[in-house]
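A.,

Following up on our hallway conversation. Structure tokens first:
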């Protein structure tokens, strides 16, 4: 059973993974890869990163068969916030963001 969500949120923004606002809600790390295999099965993974923008996001960047790159944004805060809170990392990121006014990339 796949647990990622492509449903609409309360603001009726379709969640297609094209931005932070339209991020796919992933309930596990594997959900990200399942989704990408489903929507871009012939793509090659170029890289992945984490970003913090009020929530924690995983971003997968892929190369399509036509050589264009595409990035998919995943809201991974559901399972990652607990780990980062225990390590004290989230508190540090939030304090730094308040001081600088700049969203952080992890």
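Then the amino acids I'd put at each of the 106 positions:
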């Amino acid at each position: 059973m796949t647990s990622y969500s492509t449903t609409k949120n309360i603001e009726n923004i379709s969640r297609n993974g094209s931005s932070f606002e339209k991020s796919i809600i992933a309930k596990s790390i594997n959900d990200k890869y399942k989704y990408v295999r489903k929507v871009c099965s012939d793509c090659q993974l170029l890289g992945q990163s984490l970003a913090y923008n009020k929530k924690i996001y995983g971003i997968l960047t892929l190369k399509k068969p036509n050589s264009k790159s595409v990035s998919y944004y995943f809201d991974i805060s559901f399972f990652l916030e607990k780990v980062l809170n225990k390590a004290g990392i989230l508190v540090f990121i939030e304090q730094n963001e308040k001081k600088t006014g700049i969203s952080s990339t992890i």
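Residues 89-100 form the longest helix (12 residues). Curious whether your intuition agrees with the design.

B.
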